[in-house]
Amino acid sequence: MGSVKAAVFCHAPWEPEGREMERELSRQLELLEEGCKKRGIEVVARYFHVGQTGLHPKGSVMLDMLRAAKRGDFEWIVVENFGKFPRCPQQDIPPLCLYSIREGRQKRVGKSRSRLFFGAPGLP
Question: Which of 71, 76, 77, 78 is such that its CA lies 20 to 30 A from the CA of 105?
Fold first, then answer.
């Protein structure tokens, strides 16, 4: 597959009790990092999100991740399965490659030209 730079995105759509949430995110991270290593994908960033995702201007892990993709920090976003990637209108996502470890395939997503992604700094 060759070496590509990727961010892994671990997402729990619900908020279980503390330990359960930590175990779920930990399980996803381990699965994604092992899968990337086997496929020659270099993990350069890790993003974790619990609860509903969205592209809210403040405090959005998803928005920070998409801004980093737009800057060119990585070429792919790797998820456990495509269902883990939040559904957003394609015009809200910059063009990038989404790779599913479980499905073992990639797909192109995004069409955004939104000002949210041009020169906007990430959140600290």
Answer: 71
User: How far is 94 from 69, CA to CA, in rounded Å?
Assistant: 8
Tell me which H or E stretch contains 66.
helix 61-71
pLDDT of residue 88: 65
pTM here is 0.78
- Helix and strand totals (H; E) in the chain: 2, 5
What's the pLDDT score for residue 10? 92
Q: Which domains does the chain have, with CATH numbers?
A: 4-117 (3.40.50.1390)
Cα–Cα distance measured from residue 105 to residue 124, given in angstroms and rounded to the nearest whole number:
32
* pLDDT score of 71 more than 80: yes
